[in-house]
Amino acid sequence: MLAVFDLDGTLLDGDSTALWLWDRVRRSPLRALATLAILPVAVPMVALPRTRRAGASILLWIATAGLREQALRQSCARFGETFHAGGGALAWRPGGLATLNEHLRRGDRVIVVTAAPAILAEALIGPLNRPIEVLGTSLKRRGGGWVADIHCRNQRKCQALAEAGHGARWTYAYTDSLDDLPLLRGAERPVIVKGGKAAERRLFKAGLANGRAAAW
Questions:
Q1: Which of 104, 130, 156, 206 has the highest CB neighbour number within 10 Å of its CB?
Q2: Bridge partner residues of 173 (DSSP)
Q3: Beta-carbon contacts of residue 154 (< 8 Å; ≥ 6 apart)
Q4: pLDDT, one tens digit for every residue, the chain (216 residues)
Q5: Which residues neighbour 117 within 8 Å (Cβ) at sequence distance 6 or greater?
Q6: Domains of the chain
């Protein structure tokens, strides 16, 4: 069986990309000033699906300007090390991690597919030392910094799974957001990890009669 997990808000209690970018920005007065100046423009862009990639790329570029690929990977690795050492604001969601471990214990294939940069997600998932495949947003270098290339969100998550050889259907899908509706519709057992009647109504309205809400 194949179990597909979102990352931020599902396995993690927080936005890994935002926290990594903030960690980089706060260490540089110049990056901090540039970020503060652009926030009134970038934040509304990130909030809208059509402009989310562009808005995120602006913030990503400011935080990574001057980094070559090796330095970029090292930055993600250090962030992952700090996270696993218990530092910073990011934390595992106990219910998410327990569910992931249960799938692995049963011998299911587990994939994390996320809108976060793939290299960042790998730095967070890799130290678990478990057979977990990670798919995420690819980055490209532009103008001395890094921006989003293929933004792994919404329908693109399903495309990433297909391109990785996993077809168009999977047994389980876990996410905290209906932005992942295509991912949920591809699952035999879709789960939105927000409990309560409101979450159940959202699943019903989305046409996921076989879906369930789990309070993580």
A1: 156
A2: 4, 190
A3: 49, 179, 180, 181, 182
A4: 999 999 999 999 999 999 999 999 999 999 999 999 999 999 999 888 889 989 999 999 999 999 999 999 999 999 999 999 998 899 999 999 999 999 999 999 999 999 999 999 999 999 999 999 999 999 999 999 999 999 999 999 999 999 999 999 999 999 998 899 999 999 999 999 987 777 777 777 778 878 888 878
A5: 17, 60, 76, 136, 137, 138, 139, 148
A6: 2-213 (3.40.50.1000)
